[in-house]
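G., before I forget:
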Amino acid sequence: MQEIFDYIDDHWEKAISDLKRLCRQPSISAQSKGMAEMARLTAQLLKEYTVSPKLLPVPGSSFPVVYGEIKGQSPVTLLFYNHYDVQPPEPLELWTTKPFEPALREGKLFARGVADNKGDIAARLLALRAFLKVRGRLPISVKFVIEGEEEIGSPHLAKFVEQNKRLLKANACIWECGGMNWKNQPTVSLGVKGILYVQLETRGASVDVHSSMGTIVPNPAWRLVWALASLKDMDENIRIAGFYDQVRPPTSQETKAVKAMQSDEEEIKESLGLKKFVKGVTGFDYRSRHILEPVLNICGMESGYTGPGSKTVLPCLAHAKLDFRLVPDQRPDDILSKLRKHLDSHGFEDITISPATEGENPSRTPIDSRFVSIVAQAAREVYGMEPAIIPSMAGSGPMYSFTDTLGLPTALIGVSYAGSRPHAPDEHIRIADFILGAKHIAVLLERMASDWRPARK
Amino acid sequence: MQEIFDYIDDHWEKAISDLKRLCRQPSISAQSKGMAEMARLTAQLLKEYTVSPKLLPVPGSSFPVVYGEIKGQSPVTLLFYNHYDVQPPEPLELWTTKPFEPALREGKLFARGVADNKGDIAARLLALRAFLKVRGRLPISVKFVIEGEEEIGSPHLAKFVEQNKRLLKANACIWECGGMNWKNQPTVSLGVKGILYVQLETRGASVDVHSSMGTIVPNPAWRLVWALASLKDMDENIRIAGFYDQVRPPTSQETKAVKAMQSDEEEIKESLGLKKFVKGVTGFDYRSRHILEPVLNICGMESGYTGPGSKTVLPCLAHAKLDFRLVPDQRPDDILSKLRKHLDSHGFEDITISPATEGENPSRTPIDSRFVSIVAQAAREVYGMEPAIIPSMAGSGPMYSFTDTLGLPTALIGVSYAGSRPHAPDEHIRIADFILGAKHIAVLLERMASDWRPARK
């Protein structure tokens, strides 16, 4: 492997320069901005790295999947799931340099999308090139699925995967991005939570009226407050009947992995200006809540007059946006129907529910899968330390299509670190992590060729 | 009185033309727009109607009180409380004609402020002129207090009244505006509710974070929802300890008056597109709730992302605006301290309370006061029917300074009707009501000279 490492050490600047090309192109799916250009540029880059690209239409979506494949020595196949879209860059005034003008400073590259997840696309391509240049071929075959709707909830990917099972056949999957934790320890994450995102809305009179009418005119803001308060109590228990029924208890290995994780509590508290966490949790309870438990969050709510000063008004409309984060084996459609039943049985028939999308299922790859031990071993070789094994991310993604529809063990590794600020101003990666990340992929390809055995599922 | 009525019938067009002058001048206290011009114009108009005007500074305010007085035959003195400020005219697109370009159509005059309450200033001046032209003098003395901050809660008027007790000495007070109910029956209202307007606010992390952090990062939107739900239950009971302690039970006369009122339920329901009222109340319960009971209203609330589509965010800030409408003998400062105690004792020490102003006390003039019978008798003579006696408005105002600081029995009568749309687009009055309103004032002046005896307090 030393020659491969040397190649990466000698040529990362070219890869960073290609990464800048990716970052210079805005690709904001939420605003349909630069998406066609970005799909073409991504395909172009794959081609430059000897990966045959195709733009595959996605049913129901305007943004194609950029698919790529390259054969290797062994028929073992690793699939990379990535996305070419990014979050909107706002608020612009909080960026030190412009979000779509990638800037290198203090060993870091700043740009919207560099951490989530264009940096990983570039690092993975660098690892491939190293093998091709040094050895003339890859140890195993590789496929890329790079979608354009991850940042808007991947609403059409499940269907795409269903329809392309044969094309996407592989042995394992590396997920979009990941990286170092607050202790500069590499992480290998093995799942995502599911999500159900809904808007609740209720109406009162046909127009806003004077607030003195509150004696007799129903106020939708009160209705919404009462309904929301009925969903979750002050001890964070979700009060929807049957909400927890499908929660599969964590395996002993998952519990053990969460126990083994180092604490990042002080770092998180400091970075967010918090004195304590929800329910005052610390240690194992803190990590377990975050990684293994479902949650119900208010993303936003609004009613009536919210400007400066006072206005004596009784609003005619109130709405809230909620997201449920789900764990195996909860399902968004089941939770949606339980939410409707809850509202009806608590006297809130007037409150409508609009799901933003169909939601996403939770997904986890078992810690004892062979693939996980290969990814972890590759991390030990590159980073010189034990990686943190994390049973699940707190966030969501379309992973279920890969783990369950395609049956692939899936792991998240990547070139970010805990301070990378994905989705936020001054998003960045550290160049050192980029180089290590490329090497991690390289060792993984090599080890998959030598160590892979089909999963014992 | 016939000569006086004839004068009003023959000269109302000149008064309407003066009213248009008042309405053409914007005077938006909330935006400090046109206020100095309006104060000068109001004083100018008083002068044209032979009332000596003065602009009196109001401690703490940039907007003076326009004070005026004119002596009459009898030393009995009636004080008119009015205001020269108006509500902002927005939303402009819902006005048929421009808010500050008064327009006559179908026997109605449309303009911002014409109903609330410039029309009443003009009608009262017309009544005075009728006496002066027909008889050369007024039957009684009259004083005007026309303030510039009514639409922003009269924050400085109480102090002004305290400091000008001698100047404002009078025997009774006619309040800013009033008029016909949905049945075209004149109303005589005898009180206002008190008000306490507060903003509640709570903060979580120092910045908005990804919603998947909801497992561990406190969400101020949830805190606010739980706090609000603790303040009022779904049966509309306000759960703040001691909230109802100071509520004085209505007198038998007040209850009788509310019972005697005609129903406007169908008109209100139709105008607001409602199927039923809060708690399903009808008849006496409906009117009693509206007129005699305190209420807690959410005027607005906001947290996190409230735009189109979905954003998975955990907000760092949540706030709500509330108004309490109070009845005798509740006091805003007492309710404010009970609210703070409630939040503290329910675990909401994190929620701050910012009162918009010091609030206003409730006020009621007893139905059996001599002044009320004089006002009612004058109404019978002018309108040819029994007026509706309403123990209190549902809204608020600085009446306490007049009823309690100055000790004046106070009644609301005026030139509006139930469809006048005060504070809303297409605010208007009917010309016929304007003429009747001027006559009502004229008869009242005459009867005060003959029938007034000091209150038997």
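The first strand of chain A starts at residue 52 and ends at 56. DSSP finds twelve helices and 21 strands in chain A.

More on Monday.
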